[in-house]
Q: What sequence folds into this?
């Protein structure tokens, strides 16, 4: 009996000690981390993707000093690495954490957050005249076309009007083969075959796994889809980023009927698949594209082992590719090739939907302060400070709108402060890229797509969409990289998506797109 | 009989030869990939991206290690990881041993409910969001290294193993201690624990490896970069280098991606690998005893 009591005493003591330990430990946390304190509005917490930039402490100190003097508050950004950004940001929203802004996008969790009421409609705030610097830097078209059912759920972050996928090529090799300038797809193809023939150790172009259907499904152009370069006026629609693309009727606006068809029914897509298969067999594209990541293909290009790389009109291919390339290959030159028929007068279709948005947390301590911050960042001096770092230490101006990088500071501006009119260009930017970048910054160089602000709601067909996405990845990717016979591969894909519920997805898309058409004037 | 034994000692049996060959081949199969990782981490990126792994680093390059060790706060990250591992393992060992002892003693009204309470998390968990809310909003442990330690403090599976071990300690020894007037605490500390060194070593090793490799809770709860443990710091590093190729940042560092991955593997597994030799002599005994008797 006494032994029993002793044991119970021991247990009681153990329990007591454990409780004391937990209570004691609870005091070990960082009490400043809870922004629900009264200071929440004086120190804005921001979620940013990526690693902490080199030299960030000095830049943050300068930003906060100026911000404190101008507006009376400071910022504390939290950087979350890219691999975990999506899930972590979602968790923080779900848990009701009090931060002010975050990067969101359709390819992250924006639709889900809109559905759960976690985001603030910034439309009235942006256009209300209360934040003039911000309003001045956002084009009306950009604001209008980024609204979802009339509401703007974030500040669109873009550094150009339209984004056209294209190629960065080794201009020195092209000149070696007697090609001075590439302006159309047949010449580009000839360049690749010349590379294969005359520099057999160099792969004409390397693809990575995340390029997937960019190779053949227009949006409005696709890398190896010659028809899309001839006529860049069709943009695929899908329920989510990795889902199966559909094309809606070209004359939908006139007929009022969207009539969606699977991507393979669009003229030129199957031809593009056959072209890719031929490139695969001829060694024009790499054979391991299904397993290669973007970092590797970039490394291959900068080491001089490939002759072309994927690029987009964001003005960044020169800065990311040229220094490494010229270090590895003496005399190497870079040129951006956009083989659109008609060149800069082609007027390709665009939805103008931003890839990224800065969203305001509905549970943030002060949405007002967050908007003040966005307005403050729309002033050139402040924008330069956070985007490029401390002048003289991290960068120096070259002319009025260029800069030379002096350090390795790299801020993810696309998550907070990208403003088309305020972005400086790198002094390293090649002439051809500068030309195309200038072209891409003008909204008048593009045609607004009929379905520009159509954002399909996946919820009614969530299960089918998930199954089709899986089948699309499994059977589609080998086709898009030329790894399987086109007819056999396409048959398999069609069967797989059909049994996964293609008809239901297509019907739902038609229903939603037809509804949308009624709102288009 | 003795003659044949003596002859047996002189001749090598075919089985022994085959065993030695098999074990050697298996050993090499385990060691060669490891060696290739080490060699690759010292091979220049330009060669590595073209021809892949090789047995000898040629051309030799320290670029990846330079990238890692000139990166921010590697030393403080090592410090954080060592703190989490040492303190976490000590606390976990204490908590697991304590709870296992109580369950193993089969006390009426206590042991069984406690066992059920302990084992339920093997089947169900509260989920990520409740845990996040508990740690950040109730325990207020954000930016504390204990936020990494506490959620992993008791592993039900290891309690299960340790209970099995405690139950096969001879009851007579514990009973005689009680007859001699020893209290429960004294029995636990002076008889139970000394007899359980093999299982303590095994459990400590499991916890140490878990804490050393832990990055997820740090990702959830630690935003102060000076408190990042090594694994989180390195994960951030590799993530930023890998994503630099596709993301629209103003500059992308020309860091050696392949080489860096291999060097990171070498840097992260090195220290914890040293723990194995210390625990090895207890390892097999502790595992098998705990696993087969109960």
A:
């Amino acid at each position: 009996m006494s032994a029993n009591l002793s044991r119970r005493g021991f247990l009681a003591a153990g329990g007591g000690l454990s409780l004391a330990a937990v209570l004691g430990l609870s005091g070990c946390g960082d009490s400043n981390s809870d922004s629900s304190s009264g200071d929440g509005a004086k120190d804005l917490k921001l979620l940013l993707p990526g690693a902490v930039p080199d030299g960030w402490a000095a830049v943050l100190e300068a930003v906060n000093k100026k911000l404190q003097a101008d507006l009376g508050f400071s910022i504390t950004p939290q950087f979350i690495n890219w691999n975990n950004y999506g899930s972590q940001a979602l968790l923080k929203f779900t848990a009701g954490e009090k931060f002010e802004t975050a990067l969101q996008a359709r390819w992250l969790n924006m639709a889900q957050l809109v559905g759960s009421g976690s985001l603030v409609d910034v439309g009235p705030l942006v256009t209300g005249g209360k934040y003039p610097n911000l309003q001045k830097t956002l084009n009306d078209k950009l604001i209008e076309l980024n609204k979802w059912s009339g509401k703007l759920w974030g500040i669109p972050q873009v550094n150009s009007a339209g984004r056209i996928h294209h190629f960065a090529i080794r201009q020195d090799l092209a000149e070696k083969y007697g090609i001075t300038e590439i302006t159309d797809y047949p010449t580009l193809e000839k360049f690749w075959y010349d590379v294969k023939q005359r520099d057999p150790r160099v792969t004409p172009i390397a693809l990575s796994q995340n390029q997937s259907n960019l190779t053949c499904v227009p949006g409005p152009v696709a890398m190896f889809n010659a028809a899309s370069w001839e006529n860049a006026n069709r943009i695929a629609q899908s329920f989510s980023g990795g889902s199966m693309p559909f094309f809606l009727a070209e004359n939908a606006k006139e007929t009022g009927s969207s009539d969606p068809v699977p991507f393979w029914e669009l003229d030129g897509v199957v031809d593009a698949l056959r072209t890719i298969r031929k490139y695969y067999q001829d060694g024009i594209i790499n054979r391991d594209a299904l397993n290669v990541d973007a970092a590797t293909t970039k490394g291959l290009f900068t080491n001089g082992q490939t002759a072309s790389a994927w690029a987009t009109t964001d003005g960044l291919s020169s800065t990311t590719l040229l220094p490494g390339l010229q270090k590895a290959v003496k005399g190497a030159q870079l040129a951006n090739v956009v083989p659109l028929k008609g060149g800069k007068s082609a007027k390709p279709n665009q939805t103008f939907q931003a890839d990224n948005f800065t969203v305001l947390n509905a549970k943030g301590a002060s949405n007002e302060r967050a908007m003040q911050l966005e307005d403050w960042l729309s002033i050139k001096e402040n924008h330069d400070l956070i985007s490029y770092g401390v002048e003289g230490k991290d960068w120096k101006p070259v002319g009025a709108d260029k800069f030379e990088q002096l350090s390795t500071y790299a801020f993810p501006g696309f998550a907070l402060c990208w403003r088309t009119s305020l972005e400086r260009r790198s002094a390293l930017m090649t002439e051809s890229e500068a030309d195309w970048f200038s072209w891409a910054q003008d909204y008048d160089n593009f045609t607004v797509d009929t379905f520009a602000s159509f954002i399909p709601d996946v919820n009614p067909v969530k299960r089918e969409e998930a199954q089709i996405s899986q089948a699309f990845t499994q059977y589609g990717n080998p086709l898009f990289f030329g790894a399987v016979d086109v007819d056999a591969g396409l048959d398999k894909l069609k069967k797989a998506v059909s049994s996964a519920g293609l008809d239901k997805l297509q019907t739902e898309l038609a229903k939603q797109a037809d509804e949308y058409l009624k709102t288009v004037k | 009989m003795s003659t044949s034994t003596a002859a047996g000692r002189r001749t090598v049996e075919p089985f022994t030869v085959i065993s030695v060959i098999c074990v050697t081949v298996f050993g090499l199969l385990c060691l060669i990939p490891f060696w290739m990782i080490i060699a690759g981490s010292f091979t220049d990126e330009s060669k590595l991206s073209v021809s892949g792994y090789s047995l000898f680093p040629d051309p030799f390059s320290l670029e990846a290690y330079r990238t890692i060790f000139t990166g921010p706060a590697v030393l403080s990250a090592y410090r954080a990881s060592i703190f989490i591992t040492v303190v976490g393992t000590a606390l976990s060992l204490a908590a697991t041993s304590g709870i296992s002892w109580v369950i193993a003693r089969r006390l009426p009204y206590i042991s069984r409910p406690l066992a059920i309470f302990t084992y339920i998390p093997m089947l169900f968990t509260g989920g990520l969001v409740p845990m996040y809310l508990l740690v950040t909003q109730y325990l207020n442990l954000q930016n504390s290294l204990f936020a990494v330690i506490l959620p992993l403090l008791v592993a039900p599976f290891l309690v299960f193993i340790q209970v099995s071990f405690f139950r096969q300690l001879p009851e007579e020894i514990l009973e005689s201690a009680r007859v001699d007037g020893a209290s429960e605490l004294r029995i636990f500390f002076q008889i139970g624990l000394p007899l359980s060194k093999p299982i303590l070593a095994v459990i400590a090793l499991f916890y140490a490896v878990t804490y050393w490799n832990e990055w997820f809770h740090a990702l959830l709860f630690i935003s102060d970069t000076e408190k990042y443990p090594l694994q989180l710091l390195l994960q951030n590093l590799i993530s930023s280098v890998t994503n630099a190729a596709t993301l629209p940042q103003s500059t992308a560092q020309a860091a050696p991606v392949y080489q860096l991955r291999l060097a990171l593997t070498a840097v992260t597994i090195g220290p914890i690998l040293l723990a194995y030799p210390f625990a090895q002599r207890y390892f097999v005994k502790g595992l098998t005893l705990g696993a087969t008797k109960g």
